[in-house]
Amino acid sequence: MTESPALVIFDLDGTLVDPAGSITSGIAFALKSHGLPVPDATTLGSMVGPPLLESLRRLADVPEEALPAVVHAYRRRYISHGMAASRPYAGIPELLAQLRGEGLHLAVATQKPQSLAEKLLKLHGLDRHFHSIHGAPDDETLPPAPDGKARIVRAALTTNHASASRAVMVGDRRHDAHGAAANGIPCIGVRWGFAPAGELEALALVGIVDDAAALRDAIAAVLSRQTAGTAAETAAC
């Protein structure tokens, strides 16, 4: 049986695409439009990455009865203004093309609603690089699954027929590392995202990188170690 290609799973916001303030400004807009207090800039920044409903509850203290309306206002603002303001991080389009050209399978695993993730990637011409795109349910008023990110990463592995021994996750927040660990795959952290100071260093990551070139080297190193490990196991059988 032919072994499936190795799989690289990417987070979206803060990893592939810079929201350029569209997420935080959109949350502020939605809160203001409903007469709710807006958190400080640091708190708003920490809301990029986790499920929106979770952040509105935990970090913005939005009352339960107001959550659907606030989420709806945010989403309308994001579609009308936010996506157009975002942009891929430097070197990411070239990196994706290179990895795809080398025969790797690429996937996205994000807690952004899947339909919006697909639209955002298409807007920036990045969708063509991915074998599959996985996100949260489109109805953001539903409570996020307890193992939300882990479930989304698992879907990427299953769809691409990938094993944990031939896959790596790339992300900018603890949710990415935890989702990867829950599926038994290593995670590389990127510094250009939204992790607060010290968050990445406190995680069990196989590497932390500062730019796309270093990310390419880190991915190659992880996959090389996995290939060597698989070969050693096969020889021992």
TrEMBL record:
<dbReference type="InterPro" id="IPR050155">
    <property type="entry name" value="HAD-like_hydrolase_sf"/>
</dbReference>
<dbReference type="InterPro" id="IPR036412">
    <property type="entry name" value="HAD-like_sf"/>
</dbReference>
<dbReference type="InterPro" id="IPR023214">
    <property type="entry name" value="HAD_sf"/>
</dbReference>
<protein>
    <recommendedName>
        <fullName>Phosphoglycolate phosphatase</fullName>
    </recommendedName>
</protein>
<dbReference type="InterPro" id="IPR023198">
    <property type="entry name" value="PGP-like_dom2"/>
</dbReference>
<dbReference type="InterPro" id="IPR041492">
    <property type="entry name" value="HAD_2"/>
</dbReference>
<dbReference type="Pfam" id="PF13419">
    <property type="entry name" value="HAD_2"/>
</dbReference>
